[in-house]
Write a structure and sequence with these properties.
By secondary structure, the protein is α+β, with helices and mostly antiparallel strands. It contains eight helices and eight strands. The protein has one domain. Strands 1, 2, 3, 4, 5, 6, 7 and 8 form an eight-stranded antiparallel β-sheet that branches. Strand 5 and strand 6 form a beta hairpin. The longest helix is centred in the N-terminal third of the chain and has 12 residues. It starts with a helix and ends in a 6-residue tail after the last strand.
């Protein structure tokens, strides 16, 4: 099993969960739900970067995800792209996405209007460390729904995307299993009893 398929298998687990996150900033609170769909994997894995690979570019994202899970689309096939070097750094941290989300690291409101960051449209920016490398996860509202989606995910390069971004205080984070309805409290700053 190659790294791309391993990432897809790890991501498959997230399809059965959603995160409820409560943030505070300057005396105001904001709550949002982070959800997952099969099509989300495409961008998180950087498959959109493979501009010269027709299959990865033109196929339905859900179908591409299922073909990766089944071992029909492989890392070796992705590696034939001249743009593979733009995609590949995302995979090592992507395999740990659930751990990233379960942790209680820094969350920022994301202001895409800041001069050097205009290319990423997002509502929130999460920063965490994976193998001593800062990793960014951008969240934005899912089209046509009230939930947030993991928009893009990559290790820090030359740009520090946190510069100038307003930092939020994590007040509460819950992880809900959509199959069982069971909720696990990952963090609760509001109550010491939980």
């Amino acid at each position: 099993m190659d790294l791309l398929q391993q990432c897809a298998l790890k991501f498959e687990r997230l399809l059965f969960f959603e995160y409820i996150i409560l943030l505070g900033r300057k005396g105001k609170t904001t709550e949002f739900v982070l959800s997952f769909e099969q099509s989300d994997f495409h961008h998180l894995a950087g498959l959109h970067k493979l501009k010269d690979n027709v299959r990865f570019q033109t196929g339905k994202r859900e179908q591409i995800y299922r073909e990766i899970l089944a071992g029909q689309l492989t890392l070796s096939q992705a590696g034939r792209s001249a743009f593979f070097h733009e995609m590949s750094p995302r995979l090592a941290p992507l395999i740990n996405l659930e751990s990233f989300l379960d942790s209680n690291k820094t969350i920022f409101h994301y202001n895409s209007k800041l001069p050097s960051f205009f290319s990423i449209k997002a509502d929130y920016l999460l920063e965490n460390i994976d193998h001593d490398i800062p990793v960014y996860l951008f969240l934005s509202q899912r089209s046509g729904k009230s939930t947030q989606v993991c928009r893009t995910f990559f290790p820090k390069g030359r740009i520090d995307y946190t510069l100038g971004q307003p930092r939020c205080t994590l007040l509460c984070k819950e992880k809900r299993n959509l199959s069982s309805g069971k909720t696990e409290i990952l963090y609760n700053r509001l109550s010491k009893n939980l």
